[in-house]
Design a protein that fits this description.
The strands form 3 sheets. This protein has a 6-stranded mixed sheet with strand order 5-4-3-6-8-7. The protein is globular. A hairpin with a 6-residue loop joins strand 9 (about 280-285) and strand 10 (about 290). The protein contains 14 helices and 10 strands. The chain is an alpha/beta fold. The longest helix is centred in the middle third of the chain and has 20 residues, at about 140-160. The chain binds iron/sulfur cluster and zinc ion. The site of iron/sulfur cluster has 9 residues, from helix 6.
Length: about 350
């Protein structure tokens, strides 16, 4: 016998909600999903009327659902926001060029302005060129560091007040796990925050309206709404460590679906013992971007690329980085360290 929707008790259930296990019809699922995102936005006071909000759009399922739901809720609840799409073109042939075509279609479908900033124009290097030089080991370090700054630069060009990103509950839980595994206490403290304030000039506040939305539900929502999104993996995706954390999380979820929310909850309620040294946020002496070191990671990585020393910014050797970037003479010990590091 067909199962009835447990919410409207009228229509036939089409799916079992991964988050709650409830059997729902399509309409009741849409409503529940959208309402939960709305509650997240309201409870955390993410937006103020009159604000201009840039939606970080990659063409993937998360950001496509985010753009769709943000537009819908903005109209349904009169948030009074001006929405825009903001995309980063990393310069990855066969991946980002195709996914950006999806974003361009989304722009038409949702009637939102779109701004694309590219690594090539901002840094003079596309990811294709970076991978040619650094290989497939540390490429995601370059890509992640450059993306963070690229989104800020795009947001400043668009004059938006805030950026919202499509990070979902699985992403946040995975990041908590990764930071525990790496012992990165500063990031562990920050990574569950639903929004960040501007930490300095050129750094636009960010928020994650999908923070409590399960990836599986995002996929179902996109599927049943027939949203136009791009689902291919990046061709340079070798991030094995994150991959293990992801598989571990999915295994836990299959035994107990609340594992995802439970890990986020653990991250949110962790408190750091007094006296634990935390990096002090300052600004990069070269480009002015926020940095806890004299030079921001992006400047060190870029300098390494431009000098043909692609391993320069990999690892924590700040004093050495500063000296090299500033053309200061190295001591004998530092020279030998360079050799050991194979920089
Ligand atoms: Fe960039 Fe790595 Fe993501 Fe590909 S997988 S888009 S290289 S961070
Ligand atoms: Zn810098």
């Amino acid at each position: 016998m067909p199962v009835q929707c447990s919410s409207c008790v009228e229509k036939r259930a089409m799916l079992k909600r991964p988050k709650t296990g409830h059997s729902l019809c399509k309409e009741c699922f849409f409503w529940a999903f959208e309402e939960e995102v709305h509650q997240t936005i309201v409870a955390a006071n993410l937006f103020k009327p009159g604000e201009t909000v840039g939606i970080a759009a990659s063409g993937g399922k998360d950001s496509t659902v985010l753009a769709h739901v943000m537009k819908l809720l903005n109209e349904r609840y009169s948030y009074g926001l001006e929405l825009m799409l903001l995309s980063v073109d990393e310069g990855i042939t066969g991946y980002r060029d195709d996914s950006l075509e999806t974003v361009k279609r989304n722009q038409q479908q949702y009637g939102l302005p779109l701004k694309i900033v590219s690594y090539e124009e901002l840094y003079g290097w596309s990811m294709d060129a970076i991978v040619k030089q650094v290989g497939l080991k540390n490429n995601c370090t370059f890509c992640g560091v450059f993306r963070r700054q690229a989104l800020d630069r795009g947001a400043v060009m668009l004059k938006v007040d805030k950026i919202c990103t499509g990070h979902n509950a699985d992403d946040v839980a995975e990041t908590v796990l990764m930071n525990v595994l790496r012992g990165d206490i500063a990031r562990l403290r920050r990574c569950t925050a639903i929004s960040t304030n501007s930490e300095g000039d050129g750094v636009v506040p960010r928020c994650k309206p999908l923070k409590y939305a399960y990836e599986k539900e995002i996929v179902l929502y996109a599927y049943f709404k027939k949203l136009d999104y791009f689902s291919t993996e990046c061709i340079y995706s070798p991030n094995a460590y994150r991959g293990y954390a992801r598989t571990f999380l999915k295994d836990l979820e299959s035994i107990r679906s609340s594992a995802i929310i439970d890990i986020i909850h653990s991250g949110e309620t962790l408190s750091i013992r007094e006296g634990v040294k935390m990096p002090v946020q300052g600004t990069c002496s070269k480009c002015g971007y926020i940095s806890s070191q004299m030079l921001c990671k992006s400047c060190v990585l870029l300098e390494g690329l431009n000098r043909g020393l692609p391993k320069l910014g990999i690892g924590k050797h700040h004093r050495l980085h500063n000296k090299i970037v500033n053309n200061e003479p190295l001591t004998e010990k530092e020279e030998s360290k360079l050799k050991v590091l194979d920089i």
